[in-house]
Each structure stands twice: as C-alpha cells, then as structure tokens.
Design a protein that fits this description.
Length: 199
C-alpha cells in the first residue's frame, strides 16, 4: 500500500516516521516542492520518496497534515477527491491565537468532508503532539491507543490496518458527527489522553 503525505511539518513527519518503520511506500510533499525534502527523505529511509502534491494524492491513502487555514487551497489543488481515502489529523484552530474556529453545528471533519467532495474521510492521529506520535507505540506492556472515526466503513478498515501495522491499538469511535466530536481538539474530551491498551 502506498501512502501519500501532504505536509512535512511536525505531524506529517511523525506519521511519516511511523509509516516508514512499518514498511509502507511513502510519498511526502509540502508547499515548497520535492527539492525541499531531500534531507527529510534521507532521514526517513525505507521506501520513502519526496514528490509533488499531485503525486502524493495518487497514493492509496492520503494523510492530510496541513493547517486548518490551508484546507480550502488544498481542496482546490485536486479536481476530484471522489473515492480518495483521506486521513484527517487536522485540528480546527487558526492563527493568530490558535483558538478553535467557529464550526457551527458541524465537527471539523464534517467540514473537511464537505470541502474534499466525495473523499472518504477518516479522522485519526490528531490527539497527540508530534513527539508522542513519533514515539514507540509499545508502552508499559501494552499498545498506545489511537482513536479514529469516519462515515465510510471500508475506509475505516484500511485506516485501522495502518494504525495496527504501526503498532498502535485502534479504537473506533463511530461516525464523524459523534466520534469526530469526541476526538476533536480543543473541544472534545479525548485529545491529549495518552492511553495504553493492555490486552
Ligand atoms: N503540531 C501539533 O501538535 C499537532 C497535533 C495534532 C494535530 N495537529 C494538526 O495537524 C496538522 C498539521 O500540523 P503541523 O503542526 O504538522 O503543521 P505545520 O508544521 O504548520 O506543517 C504544515 C505543512 O503543510 C504544508 N502545506 C501548507 N499548504 C500546503 C499546500 N497548499 N500544499 C501542500 N502542502 C501544504 C506546509 O508546507 P511547507 O513546509 O512547504 O510550508 C507544511 O509542511 C494541523 O491541522 C494541526 O492542527 C497538529
């Protein structure tokens, strides 16, 4: 399975490190282009490559690690998102103070789903700092928990398989409206919890 990563900041890189360790073929991109990622790809090793946005979105699964304010631009960069499996680790906060944006009655991932028309969104990997996400998922005789939620069962199955191949324990929270709300930062109760599944 090929994983396309959009964004090479803290969270994009943390996910890329786990994906590389797990043996995935990775194509990582950012706004500055592949030439800015030479050292990153060297560090990642394994089957990782730098590429353009357009190359990364052709992968089987897309990890969308951009800031909330850049979402509308990113959404316009691809003509059709239909059918794409997109992992959404995005927290709905914006500069200058990084307070939560007004989402009305929606969760942030429902807004993402609306912007990336036809994409199969799975919210995951948004509740840890990059440092914790990069760390070994094996802790205290168990596995660190990653929450995920989504409206498409097949997409969730694929994302769960990635979570488990990384070595985490995946906990399905349900759909984007309900599960997404529980794991939403900063309003939900789950972000920041570092839980270990022992069995
Ligand atoms: N940092 C955290 O503690 C944390 C924790 C959980 C979740 N999150 C969420 O994860 C997401 C990423 O966070 P981060 O801290 O990794 O952000 P970041 O360090 O600001 O990195 C964002 C990345 O997005 C890229 N980018 C921006 N516009 C783009 C475009 N149009 N096309 C392609 N790439 C584009 C940037 O490219 P350039 O490098 O070229 O500028 C950069 O690599 C955010 O939504 C955040 O809310 C962050």
């Amino acid at each position: 399975m090929k994983v396309g990563i959009i964004g090479s900041g803290g969270i994009g890189l943390a996910f890329a490190r786990q994906a590389s360790k797990a043996g995935y073929e990775i194509i990582i991109s950012n706004s500055r282009g592949a030439s800015s990622l030479v050292e990153v790809v060297k560090e990642l090793g394994g089957r990782s490559k730098a590429g353009s946005f357009q190359e990364a979105v052709q992968a089987d699964v897309i990890f969308l690690a951009v800031q909330w304010i850049h979402l509308p631009t990113v959404a316009r960069q691809l003509d059709s998102w239909t059918g794409k499996i997109v992992i959404d680790p995005i927290n709905p906060v914006a500069p200058p103070d990084y307070k939560m944006v007004d989402l009305g009655v929606n969760t942030s991932s429902e807004v993402v789903k609306d912007l990336l028309k036809g994409a199969r969104i799975v919210k995951a990997f948004n509740t840890f700092t990059p440092e914790l996400l990069s760390a070994s998922p094996s802790q205290a005789g168990g596995k660190r928990v990653i929450f995920y939620s989504g409206d498409d069962h097949d997409a969730k199955r694929v994302v769960r398989s990635i979570i488990e191949k990384f070595g985490f324990a995946g906990i399905d929270l349900g759909n984007l409206a309900e599960g997404g709300r529980l794991q939403q930062y900063p309003s939900g109760p789950l972000p920041g919890l570092n839980l270990i599944q022992l069995l």
